[in-house]
Design brief:
616 residues; alpha+beta; Multidrug efflux transporter AcrB transmembrane fold; Alpha-Beta Plaits; Hypothetical Protein, Haloacid Dehalogenase-like Hydrolase, Chain: A, domain 2; 4 domains; four-stranded antiparallel beta sheet; elongated; transmembrane; protein transport
Length: 616
Amino acid sequence: MLNRYPMWKYLLILLVLVVGLIYALPNLFPADPAVQISSDRGEFTLSEQRLDRLETTLDEAGINIQSTERQPNSVLIRLANADDQARARDLISESLSDDYVTALNLAESTPSWLESLAASPMTLGLDLRGGVHFLLEVDMDAALTQQLESDASAMRNMLREERIRYRNTEIGERSISLQFMNAEDRSEARQLIAPQYPDFQYSNVDLSQGAGLKMTLTDTAVEEIQDYAVNQNLTTLRNRVNELGVSEPLVQRQGPNRIVVQLPGVQDTAEAKRIIGATANLEFRLEARPDTPESRTESFPFRNNPARQATLMENVIITGDRVSNANQGFDQNGRPQVNIDLNGTGGTLMNRATRTNIGRNMAVLFIEHNSVERTVMKNGEETTVRTQDTERGIISLATIQSALGNSFRITGLESPTEAADLALLLRSGSLAAPMYFAQERTIGPSLGAENIERGIMSVQVGLLLVVLFMLVRYRVFGVFANIALALNLILLVAAMSMLGATLTLPGIAGIVLTLGMAVDANVLIFERIREELRNGLSAQQAIHAGYERAFSSIVDANITTLLVALILFSIGTGPVKGFAVTLSLGILTSLFTALMVTRAMVNLRYGSRPVNKLWI
């Protein structure tokens, strides 16, 4: 009996190993420490003379520069030493104006020929590569104010539809106040509004002229609004983080009004902060007619030309939360635009408002909330307080040519970057309430470089011990097993790189366990071969029987472990998932190398000729 594989099996094994080697190679090219210069908003421009001065400044400070690369909206300066990153960032920030954002970054160094094959290194987790940590605080007062303004707008629409006259609307801390001409109008309004808004407590107010109705939110309603604001912001942040393409991010609630965001591998806080912290939203309003009362109108400047203003209706047609999808595009003249799709309710409201106002102008109002720190005197001491500064500007004012439906476009944007950012924010969802960064920091590996080295050392020591044991115990067959073990590690790294899996310190533990388990199958096979030799079978028969009869035991044992790993992945979070991923992939690669690769090597060594003695 001769042990041979058909040619197609050898070619298949060779193909898998070559592909694995190619996609594992990028991990030999670690990312370079770098400093990235970008613009806070709009198009990025940095002259060659200014860039040369920056390079001279870094050189005079003793900071070695590997290379300088111009990218579409930034400049990337690669450094030779990671310890110089923070110092280089500080020097560049001092040399540039506030219009530029200087941030730490890690620049990939994968060769272009590997990038052309879509090969990239493994993503490292926050505990190995570091990243950015944000602690955001939701403005609960603003959440209440926004809800009250929305309810007040809806109430005004109801009163106008029922032709109930009112004089003025005021928004308080937790209340809405309406003024009427007389008590009869107030009574009609209360009967109309109260069934639709049961979360308010209603009380009549006597005025010197007319009658007033005060509606105050109940404590339960306030708690529900604030809780909804945090949960909605949490969902929106997760969508925005997904748009950033960060692997294994952490976005979770902390306390009653805070949200923690951790982005592994991201050291450039500029892009992350700009997208995550953006509190922009849109409002679609009709331009006011000349005879519209001032109490029902508001004037706003144009965003790209503050000297120009337009007067809009107080009532809002729809807001950005009605957008179901948004994509950047260009019009027929090559100017940037955003193509918008509305949900069913948004499309109905837009159609209802535009079909009766053809020929009238409609404005797109851009609203952005910014957190501002101010120093005030309190009890004779200076105290820093944080307030919200809201900027409103018109980005588009166009004539309604026909009734609009679920799809339309926004023009008048300054740059493709602004169009892309606006589309991303609308696509990921609007925030229910403004947020500000209570804490922001770029962090290194949380477990320290020494512990990371120990994790890598554990893999090396584990691999060395297994190699020595297999050589001593199984001699030539041990060499086959060790080669398969090395190939198993290459295939595991390649699989994680191809799938975009994130490697964490628990993941390294999974690799160590995989290396120990990888030789289990070979041990079962080799011990079975030795047993068959003791039973009197020939060398070729013992090899065949060893692989055939150990197959079921190997598969049973590994399938059980694989099921456990899948359960850990499905119910675990964070470190548990990282461990489960490497363990699952390691089981699959070890089955391939133990059952097929070692068999192929044994067949090539012994299968084509008679064998009198096996060194096993």
